[in-house]
Amino acid sequence: MKILILGASGTIGSAIFKSASHKYQCWGTYNKNVPLDLNSESIVQWSIEDTATLTHLLEDVSPDVVISSLSGDFEMQLSAHRHIANFLRKTEASMVFVSTANVFDGAVDKPHTELDAPYPVSRYGKFKLECEQLLQLSLDERCLIIRIPKIMTEDVASNLIFGEPVYRNLYASFNTPQNVANAIIKCIQVRKHGVVHVSSYDFMSADRACILMGKSGYIAEDLTLNAYASMMDCQLTDVKLSTNGSFYFALQSVDSILESFVVSCYDIVKAAGAMGDLP
Predict the structure, then answer these.
(1) Which of 10, 251, 253, 270 is deepest in the core (most CB within 10 A)?
(2) Which among 57, 52, 44 is positioned nearest to 7, based on CA atoms?
């Protein structure tokens, strides 16, 4: 199997490249930062506005699967994904698009599963949903959407990941790059399509996560609807808030295909290397 990973220099793309390379022929792209820890012979520099190079890359590699973990200008990304979809429609190849919990960032009333209708209010969430819909419409059963929550890495865990102040009524789910990568490979192997949430099975408040990571000196307070609407750059009436005043930025899954990859928030934080011996 030949796999082309767009955005292989990023956190998720790099993890996918490293995991998939053990079993499959992998190629990857980067924009500015050369990924020194990846096989340089299989990594190509590419900028998302360069459709000519993208076409040549798709033709030369002739991938069985294209995985998109891109970042950058939203409109350019949309154009690139439209170009990829049009190319893949003429082949038998499939597409994996790495999406986000932000497609639900207007509905903070509960954790969301694959059965829930997206409800984005942020520009980022709306862009990601537009990409999802574009690829699903174009490729149908040859398209897999992977939605992921907050990604925990050692670098992320070394900082105050929720900013200042830390909100005790903001609940999030987590995952690690390696776990996401392994789950995506599993989905490819079983020819999974549709939408899959790859997340922890539970969720955790922001201040609890900081406590478990040994953080100190932060200010814990409650997030207000006004503050959340300001962060999302939306109107108060655009946000669905739970009756108990809690904000949920969490994904859960009803799909049993990835049961072996589902872990707890505690284990994910621990895997990030940020926790010592806990009581």
Answers:
(1) 251
(2) 44
Q: Whose CA is closest to 193, among 114, 106, 86?
A: 114
Query: Measured between alpha carbons, how far is 44 from 4 in angstroms, rounded to an integer?
Result: 10
**How far apart (Å, rounded) are the C-alpha atoms in residues 234 and 122?**
7
Cα 66 to the chain's mean position, in Å? 16
Name residue 215's amino acid.
K
Please count the other Cβ atoms lying within 10 Å of the Cβ belonging to residue 117: 8
- Dist CA 8 CA 12 (whole Å): 8
Helix (H) or strand (E) holding 131: helix 123-139
Please list the ranges in the chain whose pLDDT falls under 70. 36, 39, 156-164, 216, 271-279
Neighbours of 189 (CB within 10 A): 11
What DSSP letter does each residue of 62-78 carry, written as one string?
A: --SEEEE---S-HHHHH
Angle subtended at Cα 12 by Cα 76 and Cα 161, rounded to the nearest 5 degrees: 100
Q: What is the rounded average pLDDT for all residues in the chain?
A: 90
Helix (H) or strand (E) holding 108, with range, is strand 107-108
pLDDT tens per residue across span 102-115: 999 999 999 999 99
Q: What is the pTM of this model?
A: 0.93
